[in-house]
Design brief:
This protein has 14 helices and 17 strands. By secondary structure, it is an alpha/beta fold. It has two domains: 15-120 and 148-216 and 329-401, 3-Layer(bba) Sandwich (FAD/NAD(P)-binding domain), CATH 3.50.50.60; 219-326, D-Amino Acid Oxidase, Chain A, domain 2, CATH 3.30.9. Strands 5-4-13-14-15-12-16 form a seven-stranded mixed β-sheet, sandwiched between helices. Strands 7-2-1-11-17 form a five-stranded parallel β-sheet. A three-stranded antiparallel β-sheet has the order 8-9-10, with no helix packed on it. Helix 1 (19-41) crosses helix 3 (100-106). Residues 3-22 and 33-47 have low confidence and may be disordered.
Length: 421
């Protein structure tokens, strides 16, 4: 998850189940989905299998391809990046027992996930701008409800399980022309074309598949996030490493937030959040290739905060990347159409405040991939996914508002106190 939010810890009755029961829940639901899928596969064994195209090779798109590919459906993922290692895959994510872990279990990847995950990443500390700790949670030895994993490591799990040639890299989709009966002709920027029976848009916030179903566009939330990182923090900055701990440390005040999250391999990612125009950086002449100017500007913005908090900004040894937080309207719905659907951010772009983005994308993918009659199952999948997405989007919007609360962490502290008792 990006920022601390109680909606990332959805335990019935506000109690924390044991690690074994959490894993059992994920495995049981995935087994039910597999049995349902098997019951329908026999009737399509001799039929012509539909050609499936997935746009986008993020965790959701990769998960959506694994089960159909395993059972003989022709599936191709079209990815605009030149390779799987073309760019930094970003922050740490928590895989939640009631969503992301269910998808991993359905894909047969849950054990491999736990081998790579960081359960102690569930540790949480929340402070005010003076550095006074108002809430702290230490992970229990058997607590496996929301283990953290770097996005690149998570993405590797389904990626490594796919057959060679499943992903077509360097493919940017320019157009999709409906041909009738749910079929579409895809045209790519390099001139290549493909005709498919089912088109799945897993292509993120600025989805080029979404306009086939909905005119909705992401709307700026008014909250800007500026991201950087501290490398080798345990050796180079041991005092800051102790402040951050094994999981996440966040501080709030004056309508601003400062979040530090432990990643793998000694990296801590730093996020400054505050209300600002979406072009805040450009209007000040700040560019990612000028980290000193960014640092000076942010340190001035956080003047009056505790020295140890400002030291997190001062210690950043990478570029500063402004990321305006956008979201789709809530609820975002559309009239189901044969042969095309959306999952993840393409369907329900959320603020990162609750950590639901990747979890929702992977659960979407598992629900869709488990259907034995994929093209016909689109309407059923959307009927289940859209209401759930609307609920998550509302929670994410509320959590984002808490992060920009002028009264600091008061709202978050109250929610966490109620959650953890």
């Amino acid at each position: 998850m990006l920022a601390v939010s109680p909606t990332s810890h959805t335990f019935p009755g506000n109690t924390t189940p044991t690690g074994s029961s959490r894993c059992l829940n994920a495995r049981t639901e995935s087994a039910d989905a597999e049995r349902a899928a098997r019951s329908g596969r026999a009737c399509i064994q001799e039929s012509v299998r539909p050609i499936i195209a997935i746009i986008g090779a993020g965790p959701g798109g990769l998960t959506a391809a694994r089960d159909p590919r395993r059972h003989g459906f022709p599936v191709t993922i079209y990815e605009r990046d030149a390779s799987s290692a073309a760019r930094d895959q970003g922050r740490t994510l928590d895989m939640q027992s009631n969503s992301g872990q269910i998808a991993l279990a359905a894909a047969g990847l849950l054990d491999e996930f736990f081998a790579r995950a960081r359960p102690k990443g569930q540790d949480i500390r929340i402070a005010d701008r003076h550095g006074t700790i108002g809430f702290e949670h230490r992970t229990a030895p058997d607590e496996l409800g929301n283990p953290e994993i770097d996005r690149g490591d998570l993405r590797h799990l389904p990626l490594a399980s796919l057959e060679p040639g499943t992903i077509a890299y360097g493919k940017t989709r320019d157009a999709a022309r409906p041909l009738g009966d749910g079929r579409h002709e895809l045209t790519f920027r390099d001139g290549a074309t493909a005709t498919v029976d089912l088109l799945i848009g897993a292509d993120g916030a600025r989805s080029k598949v979404r306009p086939l179903l909905s005119p909705a566009q992401p709307v700026y939330s008014g909250i800007l996030l500026v991201e950087s990182r501290i490398g080798d923090i345990d050796t180079a900055h041991p005092a800051l490493a102790a402040l951050v701990g094994n999981g996440s440390f966040s501080a709030y005040g004056e309508g601003k937030g400062l979040i530090a999250q432990r990643n793998a391999r000694g990296v801590v990612r730093i996020y400054a959040t505050f209300a600002a125009p979406h072009d805040w950086a450009a209007s000040r002449g700040l560019a990612p290739n000028d980290p000193e100017a960014f640092r000076t500007t942010l340190l001035a913005l956080y003047a009056g905060w505790a020295p140890e908090l400002r030291a997190l900004l001062a210690a950043c040894d990478a570029t500063f990347i402004p990321r305006p937080i956008f979201a789709l309207p809530v609820p975002h719905t559309w009239e189901s159409r044969p042969g095309v659907t959306l999952l993840g951010d393409a369907a329900h772009l959320l603020s990162p405040a609750t950590g639901q983005g990747a979890n929702s994308a992977m659960r979407d993918a598992a629900a869709l991939a488990a259907a034995p009659d994929l093209p016909a199952a689109v309407a059923r999948y959307e009927a289940l996914m859209l209401p759930r997405a609307a609920e998550h989007a509302a929670e994410a919007g509320e959590a984002l508002a808490n992060h920009a609360d002028p009264d600091g962490p008061r709202g978050l502290l109250a929610q966490f106190a109620a959650l953890f008792g």
